[in-house]
Here is the input.
Amino acid sequence: MSRQPGSWLTKGYRSLVRPGLFGAYSGDPERIHEAMIKALGSGGTAPARALARFVITRPKDPVEIAGVKFPGRAGLAAGLDKDGIAARAWAGLGFAFAELGTVTAQAQPGNPKPRMFRLPRSGGIINRMGFNNAGASALAHRLAAWGVVRGENTLGIPLGISIGKTKLVTDDETIDDYKQSLVAVHNYADYVAVNISSPNTPGLRDWQASGSAYDLVKALVDLAGELDDNPQPIFVKVSPDLHAGELDSLLEAVVRAGAFGLIATNTTLSRDGIRPKDLKSARQDGGLSGAPLAPRARAVVARCVRSGLPVIASGGIMTAADAQAMLDLGAQAVQLYTGFIYAGPGLVSEINGQVR
Here is the structure.
């Protein structure tokens, strides 16, 4: 019984909803994305909410990760709801947690448009958004207005918040920049994800070098302890493009710095796995997500698990089987972005009903 609604929803979304959705706004992926988030943020109609409760399989496999109790294994990845506009909708769509952001200490417009490109035959998306967001304080004010309090699941599920580097700050200012974001969101985030792995902010990935990563993560872990006697866990999001030695050095550094967990992985600069009809779009600059990332994401997850830190897997999860593969590798939960865009809420429902 639990499998049928998700499968039916996925087929219906792919055949009926997705063609119209992908064709809206002259096919502009970013405008479509913004309209979707706005619609979800508006709350929708009462009948639509009731229908969602009836047809979507709810989370059934609770897990505790770094002290945070998740009601299930499928969460929303950062990047889909940067400013938390739709934060109240994600529990109703079956997600067991949602990671908002990435937000930065200062509001910024991101990179020039166009900056998002679909690769439909390959099941991928390329983006070079560049942390476009209204700022960490704006997200904090929005969550505060809704009465969100860390640890209380005010919106029905735990919330993570991803923080990143403001583009214009210098290397010497970067740690303070991240600390400003942490101060802004710490009352509302059940965990904080430190994004040092996006390929779309110049110099950001340099902070994955072991010495820099140690200094940054240690500063944030220490600050979280100063802000609260029961500080929220600090996670680190890693790149899929690190060589084995680089990844091992990063993992050793963040373990020493006191990180609570890892999110693996971010988007990739590789273009492996792109189908011929998508090669033109594949020439666009930016990070690639979706199905082509799956093999590399699994390899990185397997290596991250060996660090001893809990791992939330993100990257190439397009089906319930993909989610199960990540859990079988030792990840404790998964996050969806591109899979949700291509398969809709039925994918969340399938994971909730099938994955253990």
Remarks:
- The two ends are 16 Å apart (CA to CA).
- The first strand starts at residue 63 and ends at 65.
